[in-house]
Amino acid sequence: PPHEPEEDQLRVSALHLGGVANLPINEDGLDIRLSSEGLDIMHSDDAIIGRLSWSEIDDLEVPPPRGLRRSSRGRAKLTVRTQHGDATFEIPAFSTDELRDRIDTLIDRYGSF
Q: Which of 23, 31, 55, 97 is geometrically suited to a Cys-Cys bond with 72, CB 3.0 to 4.6 A?
């Protein structure tokens, strides 16, 4: 929603790692937006590809980093869980801790899980 204050939503560039049918893996030019409406998968030009309302989302998880570099400063990942399966996105602009903090705020405000 264009009139929502910035602190009431989060829009970030994302890389699809898997889980969404008909959405190529590693496709450039995608954004994820979390707002009062739920989660939108968008092209950078504001075209909404898909939307999950908050009632359709079972969980939003920001898993800890894997491997030798267990630092929270690496690229964060977001896993969206629904009754139909999971989808995972890499969020390059955020560390794991930063993304978790922002998402927790929005879950507290809008989430129903």
A: 97
